[in-house]
Amino acid sequence: MTEHNLTKPEIDAPMGPAPAELEITDIVVGDGAEATPGATVDVHYVGVEYETGEEFDASWNRGESINFPLQALISGWQEGIPGMKVGGRRMLVCPPAKAYGPAGGGHRLSGKTLIFVIDLLGVS
Description:
1 helix; six-stranded antiparallel β-sheet; mainly beta; single chain
């Protein structure tokens, strides 16, 4: 799988209650370099709210991937990306404690369970 044949994923609103713990699901297992906890990652992603299925952010909409040190990201990403290999696509369901904290935490997504579909394009 290369960046050129990747397409923006569609995320359907899930049924049932939101999980209390981080859920990690591989959609495509990559065969490239593996992300480690201290890595800087190059990713494409889509994020939606669990409850509504509404998209709140997507690198795809900006037409370019993002490059971040894992330590700078929400804990759900810090825990959910290591072990992923370049070329892979993974879904993370992050409860508030693994995303932007409890309701009233000051971020517009505080208190919300979030779903991310992440394509790992590179690690360094």
